[in-house]
Specification:
By secondary structure, this protein is α+β, with helices and mostly antiparallel strands. The chain contains one helix and eight strands; from the N terminus they run H-E-E-E-E-E-E-E-E. About 20% of the residues lie in helices and about 40% in strands. The strands form two sheets. Strands 1, 2, 3, 4 and 7 form a five-stranded antiparallel sheet that branches. The protein has a three-stranded antiparallel sheet with strand order 6-5-8, with no helix packed on it.
């Protein structure tokens, strides 16, 4: 009987060691190399109709594990647009990591929020955003 208990104890110990080894092996396979981040901010827009700060909010991130940078952003929203700007035109652009400015949205201000579709765009590609409101 004592031999059976020893065998059970050894079997349990070996199983526990094996399971912990699997956990360590799985953890060792994680590759966390992307250093990007998702942020939002606020800026003052110099327009005759706009005297307050406009907040910039990134849309919900989209995950695609097949890409080198797995996160992208589909939309960008500008909040806090003055009602005095209603009916005026706007253009939005973003600055890439290479320093180029690319226009990604145009339209007419119809309320206090402007939402512009980005694509989806790689989260690392978006470094700065510009909004202009004009008549």
């Amino acid at each position: 009987m004592k031999s059976l208990n020893i065998r059970r104890g050894v079997a349990f110990t070996l199983a526990a060691i094996g399971l912990s080894g699997l956990g360590l092996a799985a953890a060792a396979q994680l590759n966390m190399t992307w250093a990007g981040s998702f942020q939002a901010g606020a800026t003052v827009v110099n327009a005759d109709c706009q005297t307050d700060t406009i907040n910039t909010v990134l849309g919900r991130p989209i995950f695609d594990g097949a890409k080198a940078v797995p996160w992208s952003i589909a939309a960008l929203t500008f909040n806090g647009v003055s009602t005095a700007c209603k009916g005026m035109s706007y253009e939005a652009a973003y600055k890439t990591g290479a320093g180029d400015w690319l226009k990604f949205g145009t339209g007419t201000v119809s309320g206090t929020t402007i939402t512009v579709i980005l694509g989806p765009l790689s989260a690392q590609a978006l470094t700065d955003v510009s909004l202009t409101i004009f008549s």
